[in-house]
Amino acid sequence: MDLSYFFELFLGGMTRGSIYALIALGYTMVYGIIKLINFAHGEIYMIGAFTALIISSVLGFTGMNSILILVISGVLAIFFSSAYGVTMEKIAYKPLREAPRLSALISAIGMSMFLQNYVLLAQTPDFLPFPTLIPDFKFLKPIEKILNSTQLVILVTTAVVMILLTILIKFTRTGKAMRATSQDAKMAQLLGININRVITITFIIGSATAAIGGVLISSHTGQLNYYIGFIAGIKAFVAAVLGGIGSIPGAVLGSFVLGWTESFGTGYISSDYEDVFAFIFLLVILIFRPSGILGRSQNDKV
Amino acid sequence: MSNLVKYFSLKEIKKSLVITLWFMVLTFPIMVIKVNTIENTVIWRWGYLAIIAIGSFILSTLWRYMMERKSLQAGKESKISLQQKLREMGEKNPRLKRGALAAVVVLVVAYPFATSMYQTGIMTTALMYVVLGLGLNIVVGLGGLLHLGYAAFYAVGAYTYALLHVHFGIGFWVSLPIGAGLATILGILLAIPVLRLRGDYLAIVTLGFGEIVRIILENWNDFSYGPSGIANIPRPTLFGIHFKLQQATIFIYFIMVALVVFTIFIVRRLENSRMGRTWIAMREDEIASQSMGIDITKTKVTTFAIGAFWAGMIGVVFAAKTTFINPASFTLWESIIILCIVVIGGMGSIFGVVVGAGILILLPEYLRAFSQYRMLLFGAILVLMMVFRPGGIVTNVRKVYRIDKEKTGEAE
User: Fold this and answer.
1) Which of A216, B112, B141, B149 could bridge across to B137 with cysteines, CB 3.0–4.6 Å?
2) In this predicted complex, what is the ipTM?
C-alpha cells in the first residue's frame, strides 16, 4: 500500500470533514434549541459562498490585495448568511413553533426550494469559477501533493472556530442560556431567559459557521453554483446525525468520520458512488445506534 | 376588511419601512450585483432594488395583517370546508348531484376528442400526478410520515416495464402489476430499517433512499443503461392491437382515467377500513395508538407498502407514455413536487389531492411565461401554506362524533 496516497486521502478526508463540521454545527445547534431540522441550512451555506464570490469579484476590479479581499468578502459573507438565517427563522419557523413537527419540516423544505431558486434566477444556473484568494504558502512546497495551502487554511480555521465556539458555549452567559434552552425551553423561559433572543443567536452562529465553510470550500474546489448547498447540506446533516444530533462535539466527530469514509471510499473503492457512501453510512448508524456516536438516547415523553 | 385601515397608520407604515430597508440590504448582493467570473464582468441592476423595496413593503404589511387574522381565528371553530359544503349540497338535492356527476363524466370522456393531442397529453400527466399524490397521501397525509424518496418507487415501476420489455419482450399490461408489485416489495424493504425512526430522521432517510436508487440507476450501466436511459419503450396495446401515435395518446388518457377512478375507489375504501383508521391513529399519536393495541410496526409497513404500490403502477404508465426513461426523471425534486401536491391540496383529503394535482401540474403548463418561477413559487407557497393554512386548500374534515352539543373531535 502506498503510504503517501494514504496520507493524501487521510488529509483530504480531514479537509472534507472540517467543512462538513462547519455546516453540521448549524444543524446540530438549531436542532438542539428548537428540535427542528433546518433543511434550508445548506442554502445558507450556498448564499454565503455566493456572497463571497460576488463581493470578491467586485473588489477584484479595484486591484486590492488578495488577502484583504478574502477578509472583507469573508466578513460580508458571514454577515449576509446570518441575516438570511435570522430572516428565514422569523418567516418560516417562528410562526410554526407550536405547530406539529411535520408542518415545520415542510416549511423548511419550502424555504430551501425558495432560496435555491432565488439564487438561480437572480444569478445564474451555471457553475462560476471562484477566485483564488488564499495565497500559496512557500513552506508547504515539499509536501504540496499531500497538503496544499488551502487545505491548511481550512483545517486551521475549523480548529479556531471550534475552539471559539466551545468557549462561547461553555463559559459565557449566552452559552449558558443556550444550554438551558436546549435542555428545557419552557423551564428556561420561566427562569427569565429570552428564548427568542437565544434562537436568533443560535441561527446567527449556525449561519456564520456555514458561511465560513462556504467560502473555504469554494476556494478549495474553485467553483460554485446555486445547487452546492443541497448535497453539502445533506452530508453535513448525516454527519450531525452520525455524531448524535444536538451534540456539538458529536457533530465535529461525525463530520470527520464521514469525511474519512468518503475519502477512503472514493479513493480505494469507486468514485461513482461517492454520495451513496454517506447515505449507506447514515442508514447503518440509524439502525444500530439511532442516537449517534456521542448522542444520548432520548425517550419520548408521553 | 375594516381593520385593514389600521395598517395605514403612521406606526404601521414605519414598521413596514424598517422591514423594507432590511430586505433591501439583505437582497442587495444577490439581486443587484450580477457577476460573471468567466468573462469578468459586473452588472449593476438597480432596478431590482426598487422592485424589492415595493414588494417587501406591500408583503410585510400583508404578512402582519394575515398574522393578526390568523391569531384572531385561532380560538374560533374552523370554518366549514369546501368539501363539506359540496357534500351537503349533494345531500340536499340528489338531482343536482347526479347532474353534476353526469357532467363530469361527459367532460372527461369528451375531453381528448374535443381538444388537441397536446392538451390530452398534459391532462394525462395531471391524472398521473393525481394517482401519485393519492399514493403519497397515504404515507404523508394518513400515516403522518414525511416521505422524501417517493420518486424512487416511481422509478422502480418505470424501469420494471422498460427492462422487462428490453430483456423479455413483456408488454404493458403484464408489466403493470409486476411494476406495482416490485415497488410494493421495495416499500416493505424500506420500511424495515426506518421503523425505529422518528419524523425528522425518517425524512432524511427516505431522501437518502431516493438518492441511492437514482445514483445506482445512473451508475450501474450493465443493469440500467446508465444516464442515457432506455428508449423505444412501446406504448400500451389493446388485446394485441397497436395504435398510431394519436390514438395511443387518447388510449393512455383513458387508461389513466380508469386508474384514477380505481385509485380513488380503493383509497376511499382503505381510508375508512380498519387499516386506514390505524394509519390515522398513528399519525395523531404513535404512543397513544400503540397503547390502544395498534401494532405500529405493521401499520408503518403497510403505509409504506401501499403508498409505494401506486407509484410503481404509475411508473409503468409513465414509461409507456413517454417511451423513453432515464434517471433524470426521478430526482428528489420529483418527490418534492408530489409532496407539494399533497400538502397544497390538503393532507389526508382525496378531493384535495385532486385539486392540488390540477393546480400544480396544469397551471404551470398554461402559464408558460412564468415557468422559470415555478419552483420559486412552489417553495414560497409551501412556507405560506404551512404558516397560514396548514390544512391545505381543501382541508380534510375528520369524522366527528358528536356527544350532546360538545364537539369532541379536535380539528387539526
Assistant:
1) B141
2) 0.85
